[in-house]
Amino acid sequence: MSAGDTFCGRCGFDLRTPPAVGATVPYDDGKRRGLNNLRNSFIFLALGAALSLVPGISILGGLLSFIGLIFLIIGWRALGQSNMPSAARYRSTGNWIIYSIVIAVAIALIGIIAVVVALFSSLASSGFIPTGPGSSTYPFQSAAFQDYVADFYAAIVVAEIPVFYAWYRVSSSLRTLGSEVGQPSLGTAGRLFLVYIAVSFASLVASFVAFKSGAVSISPTAMEGVGALASQYSEYTGPYAVVIIIGTVAGALLTILASYVAYGGIKRASSP
User: Fold this and answer.
1) 159 inside domain
2) Fewer Cβ close by (within 10 Å): the C or N end of the chain?
3) CB neighbour class for 76 (10 Å; exposed up to 12, middle 13-18, buried from 19)
4) CB 252 within 8 A of CB 52
5) Residue 216 has what DSSP assignment?
6) DSSP state letters, 139-165
7) Are 220 and 190 in contact (CB under 8 A)?
8) pLDDT tens digit string along 107-118?
9) 259: burial class by Cβ within 10 Å (0-12, 13-18, 19+)?
10) Does 37 reside within a domain?
């Protein structure tokens, strides 16, 4: 075989064929954006849950959690535009978070408005609506008022059902994502969020049962004129009040832990 030959004299291979090059992995912008947004979401969710436990600045925790929720929606929807095998599942998860918020807000508003209207109708018919600054007698410790509080919790429980379902979808998608990107810690985070769902829902149901049965009552922190109706009723009394507090704290701690684990797994998955 001479230098000018174009075919191998032994096997007939075309010597003009360029040498094979290694296959390149296509750039997936949807995956990159999705992982980055999910990583940001779990930072805000962890910070929001932590601050929600601090008296006086819990409203800031709620704001941070809301920002984290926005990043969570954007992240899953971005993964839904990626080339990953479960892209459709991730897009559906992002959509379900949006659906759950809309459904929950609608149910909560209807329920709360109905309870408030019934409460004020009862107060008016009983002559408890104040007529001046010195009027401060309210039936806050009455069984009727506690029933209205229980009805309020019932509305919240029903409104939270679609929200908990959305978190179930997040949990399932985290476990799937962990398998795809080779990060088992994401599966652990998904299971922690399942525990969070169970604890939070049980806490809400326990609150409803406790108020309905009279095991827990609310003592007003201020009772002067109309201000009593607008004051914050944060002093829970009764032998089972600790159940409500433990459930709230446990839910926040589980959110912090699950978000921390998920953040670590996504950070490692995002590393080149």
Assistant:
1) yes
2) C
3) buried
4) yes
5) S
6) -TTSHHHHHHHHHHHHHHHHHHHHHHH
7) no
8) 888 887 877 777
9) buried
10) no
Nearest to 97 by CA among 78, 61, 69: 69
Report the alpha-carbon distance of residue 167 to residue 158 in Å, rounded: 15
| End-to-end CA gap in the chain | 46
Close Cβ partners of 228 (under 8 Å, ≥ 6 residues apart): 136, 138, 220, 222
The alpha carbon dihedral of 42, 43, 46, 52 has a sign of negative
When divided into structural domains, the chain yields a total of 1
Q: 117: which residues sit within 8 A by CB, 6+ positions away? A: none
**Alpha helix (H) ranges present in the chain?**
29-51, 58-79, 87-126, 143-181, 184-213, 227-230, 241-270
Tokens of 259: 């978000």
Average pLDDT over residues 152-169: 86
Quote the pTM value.
0.74
d(CA 67, CA 244): 26
Domain that holds residue 108: 95-270
* Within a domain: 241: yes
**72 within a domain of the structure (yes/no):** no
Quote the tokens at residue 64.
């941070």
Looking at residue 137, what is its pLDDT? Answer: 45
